[in-house]
Amino acid sequence: MREGTPSRTAAWVAAARALGALLPPEARLADDPYGMKFVADIHVPRAGGAAVKWVAPLRTWVMYMQVRTRILDDALVRFAAEGGRQVVLLGAGYDCRALRFSRELSGATVFEVDHPATQGHKRRVLGDAPADGCITRHVPWDFESRPMSALPAALAGAGHDAAAPTLTIWEGVTMYLTPAAIDASVRAVRAYSAAGSQLAMTYFTRDMIDRPNPAVRLLSAIVASGGEPFRFGWDRAELPSWLGERGFEQSRDVSIADEARRLLPAWWARGVGEAGRRVSLARATESVVVASRS
pTM higher than 0.85, yes or no? Predict the structure, then answer.
């Protein structure tokens, strides 16, 4: 992201979510009526599902985002159904889950952590959009200048309870960070995550970064031109132990392409994405707060 400007990548993600409304019912996995509010300068096709169906690059991007969004939406709904009442959106971008799931999150608090430029733009666009019984707290955070070790205290200042379970959603961020930044971020998440807390994050595998195919090279050039180059990917086999060393136990790791085949009719699932685009779900193995008091 270029200094002082809202994230362009976050805007394209929001647009892709919104374009899901043009899909036929059998291909629609997530509904985001707010997404196009952040991309007024992007032309939206009005010809219905056919506009998305026949333009292959657009179809791939929209369908990929439908599946990625649905995986994380399901994790959020499960967490709320189990009694979870705190959600942290780390690098929130234009994520509108507090609005989209206001009923399921009734009585819960959603903490949105993001760069002040993106967060400020989001708040101006949405204005006073009601989230019913869900409370939203905004935590402006300059990831370039502030140490992640300070994030638990900043969240506490916004009303976060580190002794209660938290779901942290880290969507579409890790591939843009350095290894050191990722390490610091996960350690910070663990520091505010009580027993029963969960981490849901998207990631690229290492081969997507080291040996990208032509489509990934093109996408990489596009996001780099907006100041957000791809930097990091995990080795799948190493991720469980990497998380374990930082206090999380991986409970599920899925390919977005595989989930597309599970959730969608075959035609729509075709070409959703490479197996290297994945979602990892993990649970905090012990409470830092409890451990520090014993």
Answer: yes
